[in-house]
UniProtKB/TrEMBL annotation:
The keyword Transmembrane applies. It comes from Leptospira idonii. Residues 8-71 form the V-ATPase proteolipid subunit C-like domain. This is ATP synthase subunit c. The record marks 58 as: Reversibly protonated during proton transport. F(1)F(0) ATP synthase produces ATP from ADP in the presence of a proton or sodium gradient. F-type ATPases consist of two structural domains, F(1) containing the extramembraneous catalytic core and F(0) containing the membrane proton channel, linked together by a central stalk and a peripheral stalk. During catalysis, ATP synthesis in the catalytic domain of F(1) is coupled via a rotary mechanism of the central stalk subunits to proton translocation. One of its GO terms (molecular function) is proton-transporting ATP synthase activity, rotational mechanism. The lineage of its organism: Bacteria, Pseudomonadati, Spirochaetota, Spirochaetia, Leptospirales. The chain crosses the membrane at residues 6-28, 48-73. It is a multi-pass membrane protein. Keywords: ATP synthesis, Cell membrane, CF(0), Hydrogen ion transport, Ion transport, Lipid-binding, Membrane, Transmembrane, Transmembrane helix, Transport. InterPro entries: ATP_synth_csu_bac/chlpt, ATP_synth_F0_csu, ATP_synth_F0_csu_DDCD_BS, ATP_synth_F0_csu_sf, ATPase_proteolipid_c-like_dom, F/V-ATP_Csub_sf.
Length: 95
């Protein structure tokens, strides 16, 4: 129970990272659509910038999720130490 807030924090961190990435990529997409509508002849160059920027944003979001998962596993590892002890096996066997 004492790790519950930690898991909530990890979920919020991962969710906010993806929310920020989604907003950022959405804004880039809107700007690209506007730029291509103004200068259709530069569509190739504008799309290249879109892919590079979206990849960098997505990479940062995935990095944040990996960090959040590592924190969650660290929290889970401290719980697993008590579960792997002999006391847990005695409870399962009904002793």
């Amino acid at each position: 129970m004492e790790f519950g807030l930690g898991y909530i924090a990890v979920g919020l961190a991962a969710g906010l990272a993806m929310l920020g990435a989604g907003i950022g990529i959405g804004r880039i997409g809107g700007s690209v659509a506007e730029g291509i509508s103004r200068q259709p002849e530069a569509a190739g160059k504008i799309q290249l910038v879109l892919y590079v920027a979206a990849g960098m944003i997505e990479g940062a979001a995935l990095f944040a999720i990996v960090i959040a998962l590592l924190i969650a596993l660290k929290l889970n590892g401290s719980v697993d130490k008590t579960i792997g002890s002999g006391a847990a096996h005695k409870v399962e066997q009904g002793q």
